[in-house]
Amino acid sequence: VQLQASGGGLVQPGGSLRLSCAASGLTFDNYGIGWFRQAPGKAREPVSFSRTSDGAPYYAPAVKGRVTISRDNAQNTVYLQMNNLKPEDTAIYYCAATSVVGRYEYWGQGTQVTVSS
């Protein structure tokens, strides 16, 4: 199983990025996909979650209204559209897959997002 996170980069405050999490080696439809981030010196925190069903996605309060998660099951990919980025969004962003409540079984390698002028 592989999760490949991509799309990070350097962007100015107020800018946008779209992160991608491409999965292989698993039955994608059976997995919820979460995005997490970890800033230097801080603990990893959840950002957003895409369910396997049509249930409403989860957004952390810090990003709600600025971030949209979507999934393309045909492409085994989950996207995280991030708008109006702020310096405090600077972190390594990871995606992870779960088919079991309370536990993520697979993690991607992370993609760096830097928001700076």
Give a verbal description of the structure.
The protein is an all-beta fold and 117 residues long. 0% of the residues lie in helices and 50% in strands. It is built from no helices and eleven strands. It has strands spanning 2-6, 9-11, 17-24, 32-38, 45-50, 58-59, 67-72, 77-82, 91-98, 106-107, 111-115. The strands form two sheets. Strands 2, 4, 5, 6, 9, 10 and 11 form a seven-stranded mixed beta sheet that branches. The model has no long low-confidence stretch (mean pLDDT 95).
Order of helices and strands: EEEEEEEEEEE
Structural class: mainly beta
> What's the tally of helices?
0
Average predicted confidence as pLDDT: 95
User: How many β-strand stretches?
Assistant: 11
Unreliable sequence segments: none
Largest sheet: 7 strands, mixed
Distance between the termini: 37 Å
Shape: globular
**Overall radius of gyration:** 13 Å
What is the percent of helical residues?
Answer: under 10%
Provide the β-strand percentage band: over 45%
Characteristics of this structure?
11 strands, 4-stranded antiparallel sheet, 117 residues, single chain
